[in-house]
Amino acid sequence: MTESYPVFANGRMYAAGEPVISAEDQGFLLGLSVFDTLLYEEGCIYFLEEHLERLASGAGELAIAWPPPWDPTAALAETARALGGRDAALRITLTRGVPGKGATMTVTPRALELPADPGVRVWVSSYLKLGGERLESVKSTNRLRNVLAREEAQANDAWEALLANHDGDVSEGTVSNLFVVLDGALCTPSIDRGCLGGIVRAQILADLEREPLRAEGRVMPVRTCRVDIADLARAEEAFLSNTTGRVTPIVEIAGDVPGLAAPRRLPGAAGTITRAIRTRVQALEAGYRRSERNLAGRVR
C-alpha cells in the first residue's frame, strides 16, 4: 500500500488526497510554475538556502511574483513537522495561480526511494535538450521530455536516462547531474550544454575547489566541459548526483546511439573517485547539520 502524506497549500495543511489546486491555475493549465525538491532526513532539511535561491531565480524567469504570499521556509518546516518523524523528499511548487488571484504554493512530500549499491544502469536517451537555451536551466514543471526519456530508459532496464543535446554531447540525467572520470580528470557537463545546475552538483564542485581531490599521488583536475557520447564509452568511472540520492554510482552506460557501440561497464560503488566523492558529500551534510542554517529546531 502506498504511504500517504499531508500536503501544504497556500497557508495551511491538507490531508492526503484532499483537493487543493484550482482547475484554472496557470501552473496546471500552462505549466507556468517552478519547483524544487529538498531532502528532509533525521530532522534536517538540507541546503535550504540554495534550494530557495534556485526557486526564486526560476520564478523570476517565468514572471512569478517573489517572494510568495507564504514564507517558503515556514511552509517547509510546517510540512516536515506534520510528517511525524518520517523522512521524505519535500517538493515545493510555486505557480502563477489563477489570473487575478495571485500565486499558488504547495509543499508535497513523497517517500525516499534510493537505488542500492553497487549502482545503476543508465540509458542514453533518444530525446534531446537544447544547449544554450536559458530555459533549460529553469526547474519548471514542464517535464514532458524528462518523463518520456526516463520511461524509455526504464523500458530498457535502466534506472535513469542521460539526455544529450542537438550538438551530440551529454547534458544531464532526467533527475540528476552526471560526473565522469575521463583521462585522469573528473568532468561534468557545463551549464551552457543544456544542464540544469543541481544543488548537490554545486556543493561537490565548490568543495573540490576548496580542497582538491588527490588520486595516485597527484591533484585530480576538475572540469566543467563538453562530455561527448563517445567519451562515455571510455569513461573510467561515472556517477550521478541529485538531492535525494546524493551520489549514485553508475555500473553500466548503454543506449542505441552513435558513439556507444556496446554497453560500457563501470566499477560503480567500488570506484575510487566515486567513493571519495560520496565521503565528501557525507562530510558536507554533517557540517550542515551542525551549522546554524539547520532548521532542526523549527521542524521539531
Can you characterise this structure?
The mean pLDDT is 95. The protein folds into two domains: 7-110, D-amino Acid Aminotransferase, Chain A, domain 1, CATH 3.30.470; 120-286, D-amino Acid Aminotransferase, subunit A, domain 2 (D-amino Acid Aminotransferase, Chain A, domain 2, Alpha-Beta Barrel). Strand 12 (214-215) and strand 13 (218-219) form a beta hairpin. By secondary structure, it is of the alpha+beta class. It is built from eight helices and 18 strands. Helix 5 (199-210) packs across helix 7. 27% of the residues lie in helices and 30% in strands. The strands form three sheets. Strands 7, 8, 9, 10, 11, 14, 15, 16, 17 and 18 form a ten-stranded mixed beta sheet that branches. The protein has a six-stranded antiparallel beta sheet with strand order 2-1-6-5-3-4. The protein has a two-stranded antiparallel sheet with strand order 12-13.
Summarize the structure.
It is built from eight helices and 18 strands. The protein is an alpha+beta fold and 300 residues long.
The CATH architecture assignment of the largest domain turns out to be Alpha-Beta Barrel
Please, how many domains?
2
By helix and strand content, what is the structural category? alpha+beta
What percentage of residues falls in helices of 4 or more residues? 25-40%
Unreliably modeled segments: none
Strand share of the residues?
25-35%
What's the CATH class label of the largest domain? Alpha Beta
